[in-house]
Amino acid sequence: MKLYLDYNASTPLDERVLAVMTDCMGGMPGNPSSTHQFGRALRARLDIAREQVAALAGVQPSQVIFTGGGSEANNLALHAVTAGRPATRLAVSQIEHPSVLEPARALTGQGWQLDLIEVDAQCRVTVQALTEKLHRDTRLVSVMTANNETGVIQDIAGLAAQVRSVGAIFHTDAIQAAGKIALDFESSGAHLLTLSAHKIYGPRGVGALIVDKSLQLAPLIYGGGQEKGLRAGTENVAGIAGFGVAAELAKMQLEQRAAQLRGLRDRLEQGLARYAGITVFAGKADRLPNTVQLAVAGIDGETLLMQLDRTGIAVSSGSACASGKNEASHVLMAMGVNADIAHGAIRISLGKDTTASDIDALLAELDKQIKWVQKAGQAAGW
Description:
By secondary structure, the protein is an alpha/beta fold. It has two domains: 3-11 and 255-371, Alpha-Beta Complex (Aspartate Aminotransferase, domain 1); 15-252, Aspartate Aminotransferase, domain 2. It has helices spanning 15-27, 37-57, 70-82, 98-107, 127-133, 156-165, 185-188, 237-252, 254-272, 301-310, 330-334, 339-342, 356-380, and strands at residues 3-4, 64-67, 89-93, 113-117, 138-142, 169-173, 192-196, 207-211, 278-280, 291-296, 313-314, 345-349. The strands form three sheets. A seven-stranded mixed sheet has the order 2-8-7-6-5-3-4, sandwiched between helices. Strands 9-10-12 form a three-stranded antiparallel sheet. It is globular, with a radius of gyration of 22 Å. The two termini are 33 Å apart. The mean pLDDT is 93.
C-alpha cells in the first residue's frame, strides 16, 4: 500500500501544470527580458501567469511579485518593510512558519524589538492578544491566514483592521490557505500576502508576494529590474507558468475541492472519535477542510509516523521545514498543550486525490497501532 496523506508539506504536480511547464522548457528559447520575438513569447507566458495568480488572490497583476518559493516570499515581506529603516518594533504570532519566525528573530540583531503574539488553546490569535502587543512604534505585524499544523483559520480582516488603526503594516502568510479557502486580498485588509505553488499542485521552488499598491519596498535581490526591481534575476518561466495554471485550477475548483476534503476530514474525525486515547487539536476552531492534527496517548509522534510509513502511509509530525528536530511542535506548545502530548502529535493532511477508502485504510492501521499500545501497556502494568 502507498498512501500519501501529507499534502500540507507538498502536493503532487497536476498533469495540466506539467504540460505547460514542459512546453516552456522544451520549445521556448530566449530570455523574457529580451525584446526579440523569443523574449516576447516568454514575457507573454509570464504575463498570463501573473494574471492567473492575481485572480486567485483577488488583486491586479501588477501587485504580484514572483519569488523562488514561499519561504523566500515570507523573507522578502519582512525584509522589504524593514530594510534601510530605523529599527523599531515588529510583532509576529507564536505559531508562524519558521520562514517568518526566523527572519523576525534575525532582525533583533539589527536593533528591532520582536513581540510574539500569543494564541489561545484553539490556536487562535485574538484581537485582544494582538492589541496587547501593538505599540505606537510597531512597524510590521505578521499573522498567518491558516496554520500549517492545526489548520486553524485566523480572523485576518479583524486583525488587519486593528493593525491599520495604529499605522502599522500587516503581512499574512496565506500559503496553506490558498486553494482550500477563498482569498480576497483587498477585503482582508492585508498589505502583504504570500503564496507558494507547490501547496496547490504546482511546482516546487516558485512563490509569490502580493503587495499593496501604496507600499514602497526595499529589494531582496539586487542586480536587475525583474519583478519591479524587488527580486532581480532571470525569471523561472516554466515554474511561473506552472504556478499560473495551478492557481487558475485552484480558483476554479475551490468549492468542489473544499466540499470533498471537508467530507473526508469529517469521516476521519468520526472514526477517530471511537478511541478514548486520541486528542484532536483545535477541534473547536474554524479549520482548513483538509487538516487534522492529533496525538495518540502512549505513542510518540515520530514512532507512529515511522510505523505508518512502514505500511506505506505517509503523514507528518509537523512542519516539513522544521523536520529533523526532536522537539515538540512550537505551535502546540504555544497553545498550552502538555509537552508529553505535543511530542505525540502527527498531522494528517488530505488532498484532491484522497478517497474515502484511503481514510478507512488509515483508520484501520491506526486501530492496529492503538490496540498494540494498549496491549503492551496492560502487559507492562501501565
